[in-house]
Design a protein that fits this description.
This protein is mainly α. The protein folds into 2 domains: 50 residues, Arc Repressor Mutant, subunit A (Orthogonal Bundle); 111 residues. The chain is 59% helix and 0% strand. It contains 9 helices and no strands. Helix 1 crosses helix 4.
Length: 204
């Protein structure tokens, strides 16, 4: 006698195999990020990760097909770009955006730094870089520009593109050079001298 389908027509989920251990999944992600941050992407493989976590290699590959997929999954859980603030002063909003420059790189930021090069030839890693750095940073800069330019300014205003380029360049330089850590006064000087002129320059 065949097993009847449920009323909604959906087949019940398979009960084969053991459910994944959520704690092990998080431990694998944390250890993968730490390893890449400390030793680079090439140091990460299933053997090393299994030894560090006590997991079986089969358990790792049931979760992720590749080490790149593991790193991307783990990295995209982290919030690397501050949310834009909207104060009355552009210099304050830009300083708030660049506030990470006043502290050392976090583990997640060191991972982002380590995969910038490999991401050029790996679409999975490229997706992680865009999701954690490029896209949120572009959105934040656009928000600040909108708040501090004249109403009705076109999104095609050259200042918008130039500000995106300069801020992104500063971000990549920080990742690649791993610093230096700036004090708030130094950061404000950079913003005043490098970014505010872009905002205030009239291209009309």
């Amino acid at each position: 006698m065949s097993t009847p389908w449920p009323p909604d027509g959906k087949r019940p989920p398979s009960r084969l195999g053991r459910p994944r251990d959520a704690h092990l999944t998080e431990r694998l992600k944390d250890q993968a990020l730490q390893l890449v941050a400390d030793q680079g992407l090439t140091a990460l493989n299933a053997d090393v990760l299994a030894a560090r976590t006590g997991a079986g290699k089969g358990g790792i590959y049931r979760r992720w097909d590749t080490m790149a997929a593991l790193v991307a999954d783990a990295l995209t859980e982290h919030h690397l770009i501050p949310d834009p603030t909207h104060s009355h002063a552009a210099v304050d909003d830009l300083c708030a955006l660049l506030e990470p420059f006043t502290v050392p790189l976090t583990t997640a930021e060191r991972v982002a730094s380590a995969i910038i090069g490999p991401a050029r030839s790996d679409t999975v890693l490229a997706g992680a870089v865009h999701a954690t750095v490029v896209d949120p940073l572009s959105t934040a800069v656009a928000s600040i520009m909108t708040a501090h330019t004249a109403p009705g300014t076109s999104g095609a205003d050259p200042r918008n593109r130039l500000m995106q380029t300069v801020v992104m360049a500063l971000w990549w330089d920080r990742y690649i050079s791993a610093g230096p850590v700036l004090d708030p006064g130094e950061l404000r000087h950079i913003v005043t001298q490098s970014l505010l002129p872009v905002l205030r320059h009239d291209h009309a």
